[in-house]
Amino acid sequence: MLPSDPVTSSAPHDPYAALRLPDFRRLVSARTLLTVATRVQGLVVSWQIFKLTNNPLALGLIGLSEAVPSIVVSLYAGYVADSMRRKNIVVAAMAVLLLCAAALAGFASPYGIGFLAKDSLYTIPLYGVIFVSGIARGFMGPALFSFMPQLLPDRAFLPNAITWNSTTYQGSSVLGPAIGGYLIAHLGVANSYVVTTVLLGLALFQFARIAGRPLPPTEGERLNLKDSVLSGLRFIFSNQLVLAALSLDMFAVLFGGAVALLPVFAADILKVGPTGFGHLEAAPAVGSVLMAVFLTYFPLRRHAGRKLLWAVAGFGAATIGFALSKNFYLSLGLLFLTGVFDSVSVIVRSTLIHTFTPEYMKGRVSAVNNIFIGSSNEIGAFESGVAARLMGTVRSVVFGGVMTLLVVAVTAWRADKLRELEMGKNQPVA
């Protein structure tokens, strides 16, 4: 179990340190299968609903249907993650996601309600399944975030584990959309859902093989639900570095994400079909995984805060360029750059939270992080759908990119500690 205070190791940098731990490898493989499955499922659902409704707002409702339940349960889920064994929570949440995937496969099957696929009422059960999966995700996020450090023998492994966690997540995010586009084009919607069900079953099996860990010892008496939740919120809002990094990432994702509208760009603007749609979905993740691999060998050291601000600004600028592009390959390149810039933000933010948060509070703090970041993807998808409905697809994405640049400017002006952030050998230094 990790000590609550950061320590600095004088050992030579080993880029594979965390991967040498068997339980961490099991966690990474389970998370890879889970991510591939959910990315394939998300792509299939968005393609299916857009083809059914031909309405960008319907794509935004997908994100809203998942984000609302996730936000509602997040703070309680953080309390639960700090009150009971975290592995048990993750296994239960994965089981629910597995049932949701099986339900989508059943609905799409001609033996289920697939015969209603041309009726607008067919979207109601799809949104219902997404809603339930949002509840499961709300519980799994804090538990998985706080369980990962418990698999490490000491804090010296933490930066490397965070980077590999991000690398494998982004790598599986590359595979997911590419596989999803292929599956839609060659196997159809129903069989694509069957594939996601199998992948989630394998993820659940692999995670179950990880040895359970007891909860970290608490400092002082155990708090009741209300005081426990408030203590997590107070911790976030009393730490300028963590709050600034969370806010910067949240608003950038909220306003700057064009991913929710990719079906529109693929079908109506770039006219590249489901296979091209899969490539567009994968492009940001390709950029993210390559940058994450680079940072594994060359971790951020000097001027990390300034580099973070420039990276988020680059994300906004690339988003604007993508909105204005009419060329498929240029669009791929610009989406690739959004992933490169986003990877820097993800790794710096995760390092800050893991480093400054005591182990016994990580469930609650991660729950707030989930509200800030995890759900901002889905809320951002809804915002993108509404903005596209009101302003048109291209103008809405340009607007989002401009707002991202504005958020960076305000953060750079107000958050002096983030501007001055340096990364020590194993920890941030403000």
TrEMBL record:
Pfam families: MFS_3. It is a multi-pass membrane protein. Its main location: membrane. Signal peptide: none annotated. The chain crosses the membrane at residues 57-77, 89-112, 124-145, 241-262, 282-300, 307-324, 330-352, 397-415. It comes from the Bacteria. It is found in: Cell membrane. This is MFS transporter. Keywords: Cell membrane, Membrane, Transmembrane, Transmembrane helix, Transport.
